[in-house]
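Page 47, continued from p. 46.
Same chain as before, 223 aa.
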Amino acid sequence: MLTSSNPPTAKVPASETGLAAHEHVYRTLRLRIMYGELDPGVPLTLRGIAKTFDVSMTPVREAVRRLAAEGALTMSSSGRITTPDLGPDRIEELASLRALLEPELAARALPRAHLALIDRLRAINARIAEHVAKHEVAGYIRSNLEFHRTIYLRAQAPAMLAMVETVWLQLGPTMRALYSSQGRTDLQRHHRMILAALAAGDEPGLRLAVRTDVTQGLKMLVG
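Result:
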């Protein structure tokens, strides 16, 4: 079973990153949510975020506003901030979006799937295996998304990829809950099918492998 403990977040002043304070908070918190470093429904406070990032409240408010607009955070009418805690209907909707968009991105990437790309994907898949062996949920999710993003960047369809990344962002905590609760050993089976289809230039097989890979886990939560 993959572990679900939250890794600590180091305080890195925005001045050290070369970014505006709100952009630093936004990007860092966005990645933490996307990569499943936070559980679903975790309450956050503006003051707590400001303390974590060693910034004032103003850039935190701007970062939280942007993340809420993307669906990465939920804000109640009373101002309570939480990570997404998705119900079955919302999970099914987002899974359907993945099933529509990601096979198309993979198919568009197929003509540019040279051997160097496939070798890189195999290396990423090896890292995924290490995370699974060590029961590292966030590491697994991060490397899994890297595997998919590496393929989709070859599609040269930035608008479509941006839509997919927004879906990943909303699903991050849910994926954490899924993989924390499942003792699974077949997490890479469909990746191997994807690699085989890329190497063979098999577009129908690639579409099927990607569609199955991106929806199989989420179906467990709504089944």
